[in-house]
Design a protein that fits this description.
The protein has 6 helices and 7 strands.
């Protein structure tokens, strides 16, 4: 008789992020999580974007793991928007957000998310990068101003969230849609199942 694999209580998953979008996606998948935002201060992106995203995700996971009182898997992520050699993180001003959207409009870009799953006590770490190609249509000056007035650009890589008003600017997505939202849900759940965390 085959024994069923013992399931790990999903409450032992800690999300190292204060992002409501990431929390919503994980709970949408039926996972019970504890959100513990990382205090790590993200620096200005530099060098290879995939490497930078993974380094940032790792730093977030390490910082949160140090504060945990009980053993747990920690999930951290960092999302960047990349177009050519330009890396767009979160804009720090409305003017910066405007420049980002003007650069992205009418062209293709990549959304990269560095994801890191870590259990400090077990000495285990799983890291990967999810890539999604996105095409935006041309945006009129009126549309851009209305969008900027909505303040939806705040705290979003590339100054836009596909799940919000800016979704009207996107004409094509090749790859994981949820990666553009902020977390590649499919690959995350696949990795979680491998370590025994299931809904």
């Amino acid at each position: 008789m085959n024994k069923k694999r013992k399931k790990t209580n999903s409450a032992y998953l800690v999300l190292a992020s204060g992002s409501p979008r990431r929390r919503q996606l994980l709970r949408q998948a039926g996972l019970e999580i504890r959100a513990l935002p990382s205090a790590y201060e993200e620096g200005k992106p530099f060098g290879d974007p995939e490497t930078f995203a993974l380094l940032t995700a790792n730093a977030k996971a390490v910082e949160v793991s140090r504060r945990l009182r009980h053993p747990a898997w920690v999930l951290a992520a960092d999302t960047l928007v990349v177009q050519g050699r330009h890396i767009f993180a979160k804009p720090t001003s409305r003017q910066q957000a405007k420049h980002m959207l003007q650069a992205l409009a009418g062209k293709e870009h990549w959304v990269l998310t560095g994801v890191l799953l870590q259990h400090k006590d077990l000495g285990r770490k799983i890291a990967w990068v999810e890539k999604t190609k996105v095409r935006m249509r041309k945006i009129t000056s009126y549309e851009l101003e209305k969008y900027l007035q909505s303040n939806e650009w705040k705290d979003k890589a590339g100054a836009y969230g596909i799940q919000g008003r800016a979704g009207a600017f996107v004409t094509q997505v090749k790859g994981c849609y949820f990666n553009v939202v902020g977390l590649p849900l499919g690959s995350v759940c696949e990795k979680l199942q491998k370590v025994g965390i299931v809904p």
